[in-house]
Amino acid sequence: MQYRSGSQIREDFLRFFEGKGHRRIHSSSLVPHNDPTLLFANAGMNQFKDVFLGSDVRTYSRATTSQKCVRAGGKHNDLENVGFTRRHHTFFEMLGNFSFGDYFKKDAIAFAWELLTSPDWFGIDKDKLYVTIFEGDAQTPRDDEAEQFWIEAGVPKSRIYELGAKDNFWQMGETGPCGPCSEIYYDLGLAASETGEDKPFGEDDQRYMEIWNLVFMQFDRHITPGGLPELTPLPKPSIDTGMGLERISCVLQGKLSNYQSDLFVPLIDAAIRLTGFSAMNAEEGSVSDAKGAASLRIIADHARAATFLIADGIQPANEGRGYVLRKILRRGIRHGRLLGQDQPFMHEMVHAVVAEMKVAYPELLDAEDRVAKTVLQEEQQFARTLQLGLARMTNEVLQDGAQAFSLYETFGMPLDFMTDAARDAGIEFDMVGFERAKEEEQKRARASWKGGSQKTASPAFASLDKTDFVGYTGLRADSAEVIALVKDGVGVQVLQPGDTGEVVLDRTSFYADSGGQVGDTGWLFPTDHTSTIAEVHGCTKPVAGVFAHKVTVKRPIAVGDKVDAVVDGAERTATTRNHTGTHLIQAALREVLGTHVKQAGSLNNRNRLRFDFSHFAQVADEELQEIEDIVNQQVLANTKVETFVDVPIDVAINEYKATALFGEKYGDKVRVVKIGDFSTELCGGTHTLATGEIGLLKLTGESSVSSGIRRVEAITGTGSLSEFRKGFALAKMASTLVGANDPEGFQAKLSAQEEELKKLRRELDQARMKSASASTENAAESAVEVKGIKVLAQKVSGLDRNQMRTLVDTLRTRLGSGVVVLGAATEDGKVALIAGVTKDLTGKVQAGKVVGAVAAKVGGKGGGRPDLAEAGGTDPSQLDAALASVPDTVGGLIA
């Protein structure tokens, strides 16, 4: 085999299938479009899922892609294995070819064998390849067809092995498309063997590496009324294949590990340079360097994953996708620390990733600075978090696996840090408890992202012709034919008065929910308009191109009837103003805050607009004012809003420089909305003809949605007028109350009143503390002695937690040596508890255990440091009894 770079292999694969009549399709976002069942795109077929399910139709029947994928959470989670095996990755590219009801097994097998073995293409030695087929089970027969086609392609029968459903039967979910598959394996040779023994195929997973999986999608799996699964043949069997670019690069470059291919070597070199790691032959390293080599692989892999995830709009967060990104980044940072680098370095790895991947993914160039800044911010935050975690890493925590795991999850405290600390302290780390807590967390994560299986498109919608949408040019579609009626998900011939359901027309003026714009409302009339047939409450697209009108029926409507569809013009106009305003806001945000701003979500209805975007800090009032000014300058200019239809996607992005929306799915031809030289976006929504129709745009709020994502809200048109009237009335009332009628005077009056309030609050707090201190002046005398230790439990009132802490410190000082517990009933009907233990006693009794036991008696829980701990409770009626139990509790804890 001749040497091929990873980039050349990717291109050769795509070019081969283009030559076989396939449309080359660019990778979709790592954030699955409208698919709650997936955490990240994890296979090449994800972007075609709706096509396989029957809810989408493309203009082509053959496709080929190199799909960026991440497997680091939910069902597919390779994170912990990455770096310690030859083949696991968080980020990888899946090469694939797809047939949507076009060719099937025979051609798919012939294509695969030709690409792999032909001297004109990959030229792999046929004697190095093995093939598997499905052996069959009680539901599905053995795949004799596939075996015969492999033999016809040139594979000896002795190299075809049959495997069970676990390996060779694929299904999308509990229901939906499924079918047998064939896997192709490559023999890496004896040097790759796990044991050095010459074992046959099937007995050495390291030596025989799967490189390609061909899925033959030929059945629809559904559940019978009796609850049993049943397979029925699909009317149009399809093909879905997947071959990891990293694996095939390993093969074609004659390596034993994916990390030795040119896809990773430059990144590992960058990691060596940035961490200062100086081991010789780090990749092949000696035993003493094995951990260092693994750390370098982890840094290289995680830098790729983080770069692509952030470029696709994901921000580090404490939940969902952002949480997985944060774990990936922190794992990479931690391994840099293991190599001796305690300063930020991962953000520099971003530039190395972009340098290697920019040709295949040019969008990385625009995102490079934003991604690097995000990573640097996370590195700095992690350093602070790690410092906090170290302060909480007590012996007690190390001996409690659940608490240790909490430290691991919450603060990113490395497991090896904790086990080393336990060894140094001469105590045993609770690994069993740690692993138990970890497994419970993984179960929760799997449950939260397992999603529901997606069924094939409902027969009520799946077979319908696309609706002709005429709503861009008018609000009416006269003499539209009713082609389907749906009630409770089932197709019917007639809807009666009072029924709610869905009406599908052959043509409509109603816009359907899409791109953040809500669907239109309105009415269906008979052609003579003598009455109302139905009120339309909204419009959706259950299947691509099919518009379903959500209705309440006023008079009978039947399939085949002719109706006039009339949109509520006032609601459409108001929604249109807000949608066009959203475009202006995005352009203004990018002008004021920077081009790193990317849309992360939006909502446009008749009442308001909401726009979510990537940004690292709260938008200052001055910046919001400038954004509002810029938008309204465009409104007052009455700039023409132009729409260009059926623009090739490449032309729209590269020539029009149109901004694409985050997470949106686009076809080959797109609609471009251009507002002068100020804004150009891909958008299918409805818009004003000129910006002046917006009237006026008023920003009404700015807030945080999640880490790195901000939100602005605004109103336009008459909504702005109402807001100004409300503001004027409020200002008038305030000026009367405060005695000032201009902003400066108003602010001065408020500031003076605020200072007076602060002074009164301070005086009140001081009075409360003085009173509490006086009431406890002789409290030390009421302490009881338990096993030689003074114990004081006291009920207090009128103090907040800070004041209670101060009082605990005072009482500990008065005792000299002992245990103090304070309890209070709070204003919201709950209980606050604080326990303190003098330093000389923390080896015998810990505050966290004391307060936890007392809290249990008032319906709560809590914990903290050995010398100071807090808790809460929900049952104030038990507070006195709980405090009375403190001496016994302390006695029970003393060995």
From TrEMBL:
<keyword id="KW-0862">Zinc</keyword>
<dbReference type="InterPro" id="IPR018163">
    <property type="entry name" value="Thr/Ala-tRNA-synth_IIc_edit"/>
</dbReference>
<protein>
    <recommendedName>
        <fullName>Alanine--tRNA ligase</fullName>
        <ecNumber>6.1.1.7</ecNumber>
    </recommendedName>
</protein>
<dbReference type="GO" id="GO:0006419">
    <property type="term" value="P:alanyl-tRNA aminoacylation"/>
</dbReference>
<feature type="binding site">
    <location>
        <position position="583"/>
    </location>
    <ligand>
        <name>Zn(2+)</name>
    </ligand>
</feature>
<keyword id="KW-0694">RNA-binding</keyword>
<dbReference type="InterPro" id="IPR018162">
    <property type="entry name" value="Ala-tRNA-ligase_IIc_anticod-bd"/>
</dbReference>
<keyword id="KW-0175">Coiled coil</keyword>
<dbReference type="GO" id="GO:0045892">
    <property type="term" value="P:negative regulation of DNA-templated transcription"/>
</dbReference>
<keyword id="KW-0963">Cytoplasm</keyword>
<dbReference type="InterPro" id="IPR003156">
    <property type="entry name" value="DHHA1_dom"/>
</dbReference>
<dbReference type="GO" id="GO:0000049">
    <property type="term" value="F:tRNA binding"/>
</dbReference>
<feature type="binding site">
    <location>
        <position position="579"/>
    </location>
    <ligand>
        <name>Zn(2+)</name>
    </ligand>
</feature>
<keyword id="KW-0067">ATP-binding</keyword>
<dbReference type="InterPro" id="IPR012947">
    <property type="entry name" value="tRNA_SAD"/>
</dbReference>
<comment type="function">
    <text>Catalyzes the attachment of alanine to tRNA(Ala) in a two-step reaction: alanine is first activated by ATP to form Ala-AMP and then transferred to the acceptor end of tRNA(Ala). Also edits incorrectly charged Ser-tRNA(Ala) and Gly-tRNA(Ala) via its editing domain.</text>
</comment>
<dbReference type="GO" id="GO:0005829">
    <property type="term" value="C:cytosol"/>
</dbReference>
<dbReference type="Pfam" id="PF07973">
    <property type="entry name" value="tRNA_SAD"/>
</dbReference>
<dbReference type="InterPro" id="IPR018165">
    <property type="entry name" value="Ala-tRNA-synth_IIc_core"/>
</dbReference>
<dbReference type="GO" id="GO:0008270">
    <property type="term" value="F:zinc ion binding"/>
</dbReference>
<keyword id="KW-0479">Metal-binding</keyword>
<keyword id="KW-0820">tRNA-binding</keyword>
<dbReference type="InterPro" id="IPR002318">
    <property type="entry name" value="Ala-tRNA-lgiase_IIc"/>
</dbReference>
<dbReference type="InterPro" id="IPR009000">
    <property type="entry name" value="Transl_B-barrel_sf"/>
</dbReference>
<dbReference type="InterPro" id="IPR050058">
    <property type="entry name" value="Ala-tRNA_ligase"/>
</dbReference>
<comment type="similarity">
    <text>Belongs to the class-II aminoacyl-tRNA synthetase family.</text>
</comment>
<dbReference type="InterPro" id="IPR023033">
    <property type="entry name" value="Ala_tRNA_ligase_euk/bac"/>
</dbReference>
<feature type="binding site">
    <location>
        <position position="683"/>
    </location>
    <ligand>
        <name>Zn(2+)</name>
    </ligand>
</feature>
<keyword id="KW-0030">Aminoacyl-tRNA synthetase</keyword>
<feature type="domain" description="Alanyl-transfer RNA synthetases family profile">
    <location>
        <begin position="4"/>
        <end position="726"/>
    </location>
</feature>
<dbReference type="GO" id="GO:0004813">
    <property type="term" value="F:alanine-tRNA ligase activity"/>
</dbReference>
<dbReference type="GO" id="GO:0005524">
    <property type="term" value="F:ATP binding"/>
</dbReference>
<keyword id="KW-0648">Protein biosynthesis</keyword>
<feature type="coiled-coil region">
    <location>
        <begin position="747"/>
        <end position="777"/>
    </location>
</feature>
<dbReference type="InterPro" id="IPR018164">
    <property type="entry name" value="Ala-tRNA-synth_IIc_N"/>
</dbReference>
<dbReference type="GO" id="GO:0002161">
    <property type="term" value="F:aminoacyl-tRNA deacylase activity"/>
</dbReference>
<dbReference type="Pfam" id="PF02272">
    <property type="entry name" value="DHHA1"/>
</dbReference>
<keyword id="KW-0436">Ligase</keyword>
<keyword id="KW-0547">Nucleotide-binding</keyword>
<feature type="binding site">
    <location>
        <position position="687"/>
    </location>
    <ligand>
        <name>Zn(2+)</name>
    </ligand>
</feature>
<dbReference type="InterPro" id="IPR045864">
    <property type="entry name" value="aa-tRNA-synth_II/BPL/LPL"/>
</dbReference>
<dbReference type="Pfam" id="PF01411">
    <property type="entry name" value="tRNA-synt_2c"/>
</dbReference>
